[in-house]
UniProtKB/TrEMBL annotation, chains A, B:
Residues 17-56 bind DNA. Keywords: Cytoplasm, DNA-binding, NAD, Repressor, Transcription, Transcription regulation. It comes from Caminicella sporogenes DSM 14501. Coiled coil: none annotated. GO terms for molecular function: DNA binding; DNA-binding transcription factor activity. NAD(+) binds at G91, A92, G93, N94, L95, G96. Residues 80-181 form the CoA-binding domain. Homodimer. PANTHER family: REDOX-SENSING TRANSCRIPTIONAL REPRESSOR REX, REDOX-SENSING TRANSCRIPTIONAL REPRESSOR REX 1. InterPro entries: CoA-bd, NAD(P)-bd_dom_sf, Rex_actinobacterial-type, Rex_DNA-bd_C_dom, Tscrpt_rep_Rex, WH-like_DNA-bd_sf, WH_DNA-bd_sf. It is found in: Cytoplasm. This is Redox-sensing transcriptional repressor Rex. It holds the Pfam family Put_DNA-bind_N. Its main location: cytoplasm.
């Protein structure tokens, strides 16, 4: 069982969306915005937005609305973006390489320090400046380099063992792409990206629409 | 605004998880299971499981529990897995290639018919047996081949235009990996995988844990 938050996950999952939309407003040089305008852009009700933000002390002023830059920075801080994170990627197949190549992550302060794989054909290669290391050297690497987030991009058969190895070396946050629910110590954070589950949500809606039409 | 379901999205998003766990039980040759046992394995309460399944007519018998194979098949049908889906991938970069290489999708009935890209170095290449075609030929391809799901793996700048092109050619379901909320006609289904939003959920929990510890 991984770590549970004191704020509801539904609220937490909306925060990155606020952050993204506020960033777009900033890029368009918009300085302030009412909760009503923000609600029209982002697609949540104004009351939802106020409630969400009240979890973190509340922002904005009656009659003025929100200062865009201030709110963007505050939400960034709430999301933990006022610091950087060292990451490693386990599994240097296509997905791992896609993530290593995704330079957008760096803008948010994520620094990928190494990738690991068991495939001799991949070991020693570099994706951008990130070296693919031998999986056997994982523990040695983790004893020398402080890593905040382990990103698991392996098959489901390997994922649990890798999670065990990461957590026993002190990695306390895992971004997991393997289609399995990892068992980790209580205080470890696991965030899953289950691609098949996302795709099956889509087919559910597809099927439901067909049934309504027929 | 894309299509809204009559069943709550929270319920729908749990269905693929039931499907996955039931598949594991089947593979372990387990024929029947009580809602209590299922709840221990899957991590939802037994009452949650009963409530979820009651949305679709209810399954299982008092005193017997669930027939694993029957429930697996029923949930598969509810998820629309009793048919196949033709897909195309737009954007043949690392992520698009990772998805094209992910043979797991085929087991669920997804057939990737083609990939599309604007990069001349990629056009004409094949990922497994899937050809990367010139983006300019998208409309021609769609007029000849019935495609159920368009998978968008481009940058955010291109994603909306591609969604417009897909929907105007009759593609009514989009699996979107670009970090943008697409505007589509009311009846089109959009399922997003917003990787950055997932990662920022993780950093939120990281930050919250640090604050509690300090």
């Amino acid at each position: 069982m991984s770590r549970k938050s004191r704020v509801s996950m539904a609220v937490i999952r909306r925060l990155p969306k606020y952050h993204r939309y506020l960033n777009e407003l900033l890029n368009r040089d918009i300085k302030r915005i009412s909760s009503k305008e923000l609600s029209e852009i982002i697609g949540f009700t104004a009351s939802q937005i106020r409630q969400d933000l009240n979890n973190f002390g509340g922002f904005g002023q009656q009659g003025y609305g929100y200062n865009v830059e201030e709110l963007y920075n505050e939400i960034g801080k709430i999301l933990g973006l006022d610091r950087g994170y060292n990451t490693i990627i386990i599994g240097a197949g296509n997905l791992g390489q896609a993530l290593a190549n995704y330079s957008n992550f760096e803008k948010f302060g994520f620094r990928c320090k190494a990738m690991f794989d068991v495939n001799p054909k991949l070991i020693g290669l570099k994706i951008r400046d990130i070296e693919i290391k031998d999986m056997d050297t994982l523990e040695e690497f983790l004893s020398e380099t402080q890593i905040d987030i382990g990103i698991i991009c392996t098959n489901k058969e390997s994922a649990q063992l890798i999670a065990d190895r990461l957590t026993s070396c002190g990695v306390t946050a895992i971004w997991n792409f393997a289609p399995v629910d990892l068992k980790v110590p209580d205080d470890v954070i696991v965030e899953n990206v289950h691609l098949i589950e996302s795709l099956l949500t889509l087919t559910y809606l597809y099927k439901e629409r067909e049934e309504e039409e027929s």
